[in-house]
């Protein structure tokens, strides 16, 4: 009887060791799965930032073949297609994601962004109308402002731009867009003010500097604004000012500005030289 008892104890211990071993294997396997998830997440982030966007598209397409219901992979594909300027495909990818269970209001905003890039303003407006009013983000209101601009709904546009500016710590870009909106309406002084604010927020934003020159030139103010600029930027801004003057019929002023632009540029300024030759020949 004692012999049988010893055999039972040994068997129980052996089974216990096997069970422990199995649990240990499961633990190790789960640990490796966790590591793989972390590694994959890091790789996804890399693909969305530094990788060539077309390579990222291929990566996310391959990943989706194995995991077709993964929202993060579908989102990565859609973002990569937009980064690669493959806008029709980007719209299709975002549309698919928006229809998947678990998609977010941000996904609808990104769909609207892709639709705008694809030139489908009406579809973007419909998409934004489906975003809950409680979803108040910078990108949502920036896109709302752009759609309002396209519809020439200036009061709504101003309201959306103002809201967007208040929702970001880097408002220079949206201030520049708002200023350009004012410029297209003929509100040149309002545009000049907004371009100046954009440059104060980001002194490196050359687009705002160029737009500021356009706004001043539209008011027949042909002096360069006092903003940070290097020698090449100064030459390019003088060229923009010259073309603005010529367009308004101030030919002599434009000719003088072209010559100043050519003299200012540290290298040969072919674009300004070509403009001057065309002016002289006419």
From TrEMBL:
The protein's name in its UniProt record: Tetratricopeptide repeat-containing protein
Keyword annotations of the record: Signal, TPR repeat
InterPro entries reported in the protein's UniProt record: TPR-like_helical_dom_sf, TPR_rpt
Coiled-coil stretches noted in the UniProt entry, renumbered to this chain: none
TPR repeat extents: 172-205
The species this protein was found in: Sedimentitalea nanhaiensis
PROSITE patterns: PROKAR_LIPOPROTEIN, TPR
Signal peptide positions (record): 1-21
Gene3D superfamilies (UniProt xref): Tetratricopeptide repeat domain
